[in-house]
Amino acid sequence: MSTARRRATKQAGKNEAVGRREPDTATPHRSDPATPKGGSAPRSVFLAGFAAVVLCLYVYYSSLSSPDGKWQPQALPLDLPFTVVDIPGKGKGSIAARDIKQGERILREEPLFILPSQVRVQGSPGAIVLSALASLSPHQRDAFYNLSYVNFPRHLTPNSPSYHETMALAIFETNAIGADDDGTGIFPTTARLNHGCSAAFNAVYSWRSSEGALVVHALKNIKEGEELLTTYFDTKRPRDSRREHLRTHYGFTCQCSVCSLPDGESQKSDSRLLKMAELYERFRTWRDGALTGKQAVDVAREIWALGDEEGYWSERGQLAADAAWVAAAHADLRATRSWAQLAQKWFGFELGADSTHARSMDEVIANPDSLRYRTGATRAPENVGSPDA
């Protein structure tokens, strides 16, 4: 079921190995839910405080409700390469209507609305969501209310003010996707992509602030009839930990192809994923001088090899770009170009060949020394090695 509380976050290893910030953010992973926390203090929420208008919003939404409390099914664009169907045991899911090539753009979607994150004020979170919904068309509200949700209290009286607030907030928390510095938004079509761990997910999304849209690309070749899966969080952790996280925050027990492996194979997968996470942490220590350039690039190659063995292909564009940065800092221009070419290839798969990340590699490939000037690094010259070294 499409019931993840989703927020975009940085790729594992993104920008941290070299301490820089790229212009766009790739988001194949979601962080933990951005749920307003309870407690004795008032909740901090997006936008202005609309608590005073809760009753008016309640009356407004009560007038919108259909007699049987149902909303019209969401109509999807006709040109999508997938269809949304009922999947036994999972609720709704997205199935490829034709073969989809690796790197192909699957979807471009503008948000129903975005709640900015720059300003936080005191107020009622449910009222904030209702106020955003008030500006939508009936068709757009249908798309919102057709989304799944978890952790909805059973004691609320239907059509009461608190019921409408809590329902809107539950749907938002379950389906919201981060849009980097722009805030957190609702993308109802992307929300139909179910979760897969590690090698199981085959599609990733990224927010393009300049376009005000979310784009989804095929990480792998996807066959007609195969389910499109993205990932709701960083799954480089053991199966038991992944499942517990998903049960706690998303309300289901994962049965993806990786979580369904026999115990022996699952343990091998867990070991690879834990080793990859450990190596990413080690790779980041280069910026503090704990590794030489060659040692850092050797770690990057080891991560890549484990990803090949595991079938975990996400984050490769950024990994290669970070290796190019290391190579440039050590004046290994041949390695800089080779890693930049690899980065551009994988950025193209994950984020699109027209993405800022992919295009940013053009200059580095043409003039590797340009990246050394950009790093401002004073590392000793060193032959760090190319991807295939």
Give the structure's gist in a few sentences.
With 389 residues, the protein is an alpha+beta fold. It has eleven helices and 13 strands. The protein folds into two domains: 210 residues, Beta-clip-like (Beta Complex), CATH 2.170.270.10; 113 residues.
Outline the structure in words.
Keywords: Membrane, Transmembrane, Transmembrane helix. Helix content is 38%, strand content 12%. It has 389 residues and is α+β, with helices and mostly antiparallel strands. The strands form five sheets. Strands 1-11-12-5 form a four-stranded antiparallel beta sheet. A hairpin with a 4-residue loop joins β11 and β12. α8 packs across α11. The longest helix is centred in the C-terminal third of the chain and has 22 residues. It starts with 24 loop residues before the first strand and ends in a 14-residue tail after the last helix. The N terminus is likely disordered.
Key features of this structure:
alpha+beta; 2 domains; 4-stranded antiparallel sheet; 389 residues; 3-stranded antiparallel sheet; Beta-clip-like
